[in-house]
């Protein structure tokens, strides 16, 4: 590691001010991705601004519209416990992330800000049509995700809360890489009164995306049989030592059918 400054912010304003004063400062939430990259010198912020002591960034609640609102610094373990009644599919997703050590430190805001192409939360956010709330504005999930490790966040802007509309039925299923427990392919399926959303993570070089062909089929018949004949295209899929683009494309269909079965 190298020398850097550390600030434990007590308020959102304090954190935003610290980030604005130093263009090389970096917000720190759970640190499950940032700290390893710093150790490898892939990232070298001069100041780390911790968000974990800001009270309004922690916890799960339900608003007047019945939406589940989660503070950005809420850990995966806390989401799994506190969202279990209001949004069971989201809580179940949180229980599948990493291992107990990762779940006790990693946060939902950190995951969404990093936008790893194989992370689980982006699928839940896009599949649920979530709202990503920052210190400056509200960003709908459709606009927020801009590609692999890329988001609509501007320099110095931090995620403060994630607001999830609760569907009539939902489920998340992932085919996990055994060592990292990231998704080789993960699919979040959500049925709302006006249609179905299917979000896929782990498969595409562009990061999380919606499988619109499956959505159209499931909106008419919410059953695994409705998408049994569909195939996700292999073009643009990730190819690595864990699986070829064709393999991941095949997994998208398999995992999507399992998710629909679990939700239905």
What does this structure look like?
- This protein is of the alpha+beta class.
- It has 2 domains: 5-164, Uridine Diphospho-n-acetylenolpyruvylglucosamine Reductase, domain 3 (2-Layer Sandwich); 169-263, CO dehydrogenase flavoprotein, C-terminal domain (Enolase-like, domain 1, 2-Layer Sandwich), CATH 3.30.390.50.
- It is 32% helix and 24% strand.
- It has helices at residues 12-21, 34-39, 76-82, 88-95, 100-105, 108-114, 121-128, 141-144, 212-220, 245-263, and strands at 5-8, 25-28, 47-50, 60-62, 68-71, 131-134, 138-140, 145-147, 150-151, 159-164, 169-176, 183-192, 195-201, 209-210.
- The strands form 4 sheets. A 5-stranded antiparallel β-sheet has the order 4-5-10-6-7. Strands 11-12-13-14 form a 4-stranded antiparallel β-sheet, sandwiched between helices.
- The longest helix has 19 residues, at 245-263.
- The chain is globular.
Q: How many domains comprise the coordinates?
A: 2
For the record, what CATH class of the largest domain applies?
A: Alpha Beta
Q: How does CATH name the architecture of the largest domain?
A: 2-Layer Sandwich
From the structure provided, what is the oligomeric state, counting identical versus distinct chains? Answer: single chain
Largest sheet: 5 strands, antiparallel
User: pLDDT under 50 segments (min length 5)?
Assistant: none
Percent of residues in helical segments? 25-40%
Structural class: alpha+beta
From the alpha carbons, calculate the radius of gyration and give it in angstroms. Answer: 18 Å
Order of helices and strands: EHEHEEEHHHHHEEHEEEEEEEHH
What's the N-to-C terminus distance?
A: 49 Å
Strand count? 14
Shape: globular
Number of H- or I-type helical stretches = 10
Strand % is 15-25%
Can you give the mean pLDDT?
A: 96
CATH fold field value of the largest domain: Uridine Diphospho-n-acetylenolpyruvylglucosamine Reductase, domain 3
